[in-house]
Specification:
The protein has about 200 residues and is mainly α. The chain has two domains: about 60 residues, no CATH class; about 130 residues, Cytochrome c-like domain (Cytochrome Bc1 Complex, Chain D, domain 2, Orthogonal Bundle), CATH 1.10.760. It is built from five helices and four strands. It has a two-stranded antiparallel ribbon. The longest helix is centred in the middle third of the chain and has 13 residues. The two termini are about 25 Å apart. The mean pLDDT is about 85.
């Protein structure tokens, strides 16, 4: 979607912000047939699965990241950071865990606890993060809550990788029209050491 490669899930080329979001690019702008990739269900060869299907299968079978209980900052700082993360309200959207439904793909993936730190809901994040890119029924300022598991291994943050600074990523939640303004304000009232504990907790994930 973001790279503009059409497939069986996103069959239209993605128009630029401001272009018609329902019909896609004008026909004169299309250089490839759409969709560019699809699954051929008339054969049993695994090689006929589209890139989208193969990538989804790969992602389904990855083990979840294992959080650290001691790094960075030590166990006490991480535990305190987790408590503060909950108390200021971050966990309302970045929900610590969800339970999966029954899986048709493999039974072991059903009724499993996913410690993803996301409610998987779409929220308004305000003008500061608005990229004017719509997807489905979501407008340019609406984003699905990013799962935080594995955050300690990430280099870039936010949907567009705009920063390497985790503190700035938190502050980006404070923007006109954002559902997270109050939560970010609660975070601002923490002391420097408390903020560091929250950062250590997030980096431990």
């Amino acid at each position: 979607m973001e790279q503009g490669v059409s497939n069986e899930l996103f069959t239209q080329e993605r128009p630029l912000p401001g272009e018609d979001m329902t019909t896609g690019l004008p026909s004169v702008c299309r250089v490839n047939p759409t969709p560019e990739d699809h699954t051929n269900f008339n054969t049993t060869s695994i090689g006929t699965l589209s890139d989208t299907v193969q990538f989804a299968m790969f992602m389904r079978l990855l083990a979840p990241p294992t959080p650290s209980t001691t790094v960075p900052g030590g166990a006490t700082s991480i535990a305190n950071g987790r408590s503060l993360f909950i108390s200021v309200g971050c966990a309302v959207c970045h929900t610590a865990s969800l339970t999966t439904t029954a899986s048709a793909f493999t039974p072991s993936l059903g009724s499993a606890t996913a410690n993803l730190f996301s409610d998987i809901e779409i929220h308004h994040m305000g003008n500061g993060l608005n990229d004017n890119v719509g997807q489905g029924g979501a407008g340019g300022d609406q984003f699905r809550t990013a799962p935080l598991w594995g955050l300690g291994q990430r280099i870039f943050f936010m949907h567009d990788g705009r920063t390497k600074d985790l503190l700035q990523a938190i502050e980006e939640h404070d923007s006109s029209g954002s559902e997270a303004i109050t939560v970010e304000s609660n975070f601002d009232f923490l002391s420097s050491s408390q903020k560091q504990d929250v950062l250590n907790f997030l980096r431990s994930l």
